[in-house]
Design brief:
mainly alpha
């Protein structure tokens, strides 16, 4: 029971992994819980165990959703967040010889 209530998503953990871990811990702690109670508890713990930005997003956009719909929205949020991150670019400069005086010319080329 303690492990379920203290479970949080780590930086390396995907949404699906966190969902699976919560479902497993819940099934171990309360194997005979009703479906309605299980869904309510899982959704609450899922939202509380996420990072602050996602938690705020879900509280605005998934208030009335089921646990599975909440997981889907959280996954979509992470995917959108990852897609907007700037990609790191590496430029490889080869050692070619060029006329240094030509690179300092200013004006009409």
């Amino acid at each position: 029971m303690y492990r379920f209530h203290s479970c949080k998503q780590t930086d390396e953990m995907f949404i699906e992994e966190f969902e699976t871990k919560l479902r497993t811990l819940y099934a171990e702690a309360w194997p005979h819980a009703s479906t309605q109670q299980r869904e309510s508890d899982l959704k609450r713990r899922f939202e509380n165990g996420l990072q602050q930005v996602v938690r705020q997003f879900l509280r605005l956009h998934a208030q009335l959703d089921s646990f599975q719909a909440t997981v889907t929205k959280a996954s979509q949020f992470y995917n959108a967040k990852e897609a907007t991150k700037p990609k790191k670019a590496i430029r490889i400069v080869t050692g070619t010889s060029h006329d240094d005086s030509a690179s300092y010319r200013v004006g009409n080329c």
